[in-house]
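quick one before i forget lol
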Amino acid sequence: MQPQGLSINLATIREQCGFAQAVDICLQHGITAIAPWRDQVAAIGLNEAANIVHSNGLRLTGLCRGGFFPAASIDDRQKALDDNRRAIDEAATLGADCLVLVVGGLPGGSRNLDEARKMVADGISAVLPHARQANVPLAIEPLHPMYAADRSCVNTLGQALDICEVVGEGAGVAVDAYHVWWDPDLAQQVARAGQMNAILAHHICDWLVPTAHMLTDRGMMGDGVIDLPGLRRMIEAAGFHGAQEVEIFSDNWWARPAQEVIATCVGRYQACC
């Protein structure tokens, strides 16, 4: 039986195989929705990746990633804007549903989170006209607060939605279970996102207890403490009925055969999500 409503973020098997092989394995398991990373696309070439996507009728639930807007110098902030415009063009060529933004943390030498968040809003505003013209929505992905300094100064769904309200049409959010499950305001903010029609992506994995590494010890669905069915109900009640995208950064799962990993994703999606 084909796993309807399941997408695989290709980071889940990034250590085992490249873009083409990852697509083949997904197709073998009946999965026709994926979310690649830009380095995976670059390794095979944008045109070849697009050919694989379109010839197999694949849906891209997102392209990872744009963002990283804050920087200590004007030149570096401009480089970030230029790179985000390139990422938008890549997402358009691939036909991705959205470009996922990991917005960036504190600029070097800074302790000012408010200023970093202002740089994020300013950066998104600067590239939004290009995104609108390319018909590529920008999905702000709030990250767990443990990443506030280096990866994302936007740490709650509420903060991400505040930015969406400021920058306007063309920006939305990616709701990643790993990053938002802990938030006491989650239900209220998911409902708010639904009212704004701002949910662009729904990412799933699990939070292990204990967690051995803040980046590379995400859990397979069902192995941790996140109420994934509850989050799914919440998101669907808010009006989002798109695919659930499995995104697992895990030294444990990267050490296993890709076929085993994807088969497990399918089984756990059907049983636990």
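fyi The chain has eleven helices and nine strands.
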